[in-house]
Structure formats: structure tokens, C-alpha cells
Amino acid sequence: VDANGGSGFAAVSVPIAAVRLAQGVGRLIRATGDRGVVAVLDSRLETARGYGPFLRRSLPPFWYTTRSDVARGALERLAKS
Q: How many other C-beta atoms lie within 10 A of the C-beta of residue 55?
């Protein structure tokens, strides 16, 4: 891939990471009544131009934030319910 001007990382590693991330989320939320919080604490999901958006698109529809106070609030609401 690299020899042809492509990126081996983008062609191999990123799709594998997308599948693993989606599988991890799927283990938390299995049915429509399930609730949970998935926290990805790796800033590259937000900052990596090429693969960050690709990884986010690999996930089911979800509410997304980069603000820690908002994420904490979601966790607190989940704990109370």
C-alpha cells in the first residue's frame, strides 16, 4: 500500500480499530432499553483529521461531547436512575 502512495496505517490499522471500537460499544448497549456511557479518553478521536471522523462514523448514532463537565453530568444522571 505504501509503495503505491497509500497509507498502510489507514488501509489496515484504522479499519481494525473501527471494528474493535464498535464492538466495545456494542457490548455496553445491546438492546433499546439498555443505557450506558462510553467515554473515549483519547483526544485523537477528535483531533486526528483522517481517521478520527472515520472512527466516529463507525459507531451507532450517539450523543457526543468533548466537555468533561457534560460527560460527568451524564454519568451522574445514569447513576441516579
A: 20
Helix ranges, the chain (H): 8, 14-28, 44-47, 51-57, 68-80
CA atoms in the 13 A half-sphere facing the CB of 26: 9
Q: Which distant-in-sequence residues (6+ apart) come within 8 Å of 54 by Cβ?
A: 14, 18
Q: Are 10 and 50 in contact (CB under 8 A)?
A: yes
The total domain count for the chain is 1
- Tens digits of residue pLDDT in 33-51: 888 888 888 888 889 988 9
Report which residue type is found at 14.
V
